[in-house]
Amino acid sequence: MNHQVKRLFVQHLEELGLMPGDTVLVHASFSSLKTDGISPQDVLEWFLAYLGEEGTICMPALSYKYVNKLNPCFDQRLTRSCVGILPETFRLMPGVRRSLHPTHSVCAKGKHTANL
């Protein structure tokens, strides 16, 4: 099952015109995939594998629900993302770096992360 879903996922990336080595900003809904047995980690690993070592993936790591007037503290490493399970899972993956904006940060992993 996972092999078939992975092949379909890669096919969709190709149809979108993404190429290995690209830099891409992904803002997606995991629940819209509606596929049993697939985890957010699976989707992110497929994306990273498709882009390869030359590619870079970015995702919003917005935290406006957690950083506000009542709670003005932001910790780049610990403050959760409030925009879904994919960005939150991505934020916690090894090698992912997060920007410093307290409410509208972005996470990235890949060759061009430091430039972003």
Structure summary:
With about 120 residues, the protein is α+β, with helices and mostly antiparallel strands. The chain is built from 3 helices and 4 strands; from the N terminus they run αβαβαββ. About 30% of the residues lie in helices and about 15% in strands.
Structure description:
- 28% of the residues lie in helices and 13% in strands.
- By secondary structure, it is of the alpha+beta class.
- It has one domain.
- It has a 4-stranded mixed β-sheet with strand order 1-2-4-3, with helices on one face.
- Helix 2 (40-51) links the parallel strand 1 and strand 2 (56-60).
- Helix 2 crosses helix 3.
**What series of H and E elements makes up the topology?**
HEHEHEE
Helical residue percent? Answer: 25-40%
How far apart are the termini?
36 Å
Q: Looking at the chains present, what oligomeric state does this protein adopt?
A: single chain
Notable traits:
single chain; 116 residues; alpha+beta; four-stranded mixed beta sheet
What topology emerges from the helices and strands here?
Elements: H1 2-15, E1 23-25, H2 40-51, E2 56-60, H3 85-91, E3 97-98, E4 106-110
Parallel strand pairs: 1-2
Antiparallel strand pairs: 2-4, 3-4
